[in-house]
Amino acid sequence: IVQDDDYLGAIRFMADDGNDIATPGASIAAAVDGTPGVDDMPTRLMFATALDGTSAPVDRLRIASTGGIFVGSHVAHAKAEGPDGYGISIDQEDGDDGAILCLHGKA
């Protein structure tokens, strides 16, 4: 039986760096994000990339089971509006420097 933080699966992207074919560049992973129960599996998705000069991907984007979006070490809020307020809004919660993306209107 799985528990909070147990990994459910991952896709790892690796390439030949001239030394071997086991150097990771990026990954997408899923993990239990809360207490699972009967027909209840709260899950988060984590997207990781490696910086230039490193071989260890680190989390860059995380989607929590609650729908919260974490970008780097920042918490961002995203919401899709509709049916009359088409679009998406993303802002940052912690007040650090960052970008705010708002797209509204019909495509």
Q: Which SSEs are present, and which pair or pack?
A:
Elements: E1 7-15, E2 23-32, E3 43-49, E4 58-63, E5 69-71, E6 74-81, E7 87-92, E8 101-104
Antiparallel strand pairs: 1-2, 2-3, 3-4, 4-5, 5-6, 6-7, 7-8
Short description:
With 107 residues, the protein is an all-beta fold. It contains no helices and eight strands. Helices cover 0% and strands 50% of the residues.
Task: Report the portion of residues in β strands.
Answer: over 45%
Order of helices and strands: EEEEEEEE
Approximate shape = flat
Name the structural class: mainly beta
Description:
The structure is a single chain. The chain has 107 residues and is an all-beta fold. 0% of the residues lie in helices and 50% in strands. The protein contains no helices and 8 strands. An 8-stranded antiparallel β-sheet has the order 1-2-3-4-5-6-7-8, with no helix packed on it. β6 and β7 form a beta hairpin. It is flat.
Characteristics:
single chain, about 110 residues, mainly beta, 8-stranded antiparallel beta sheet
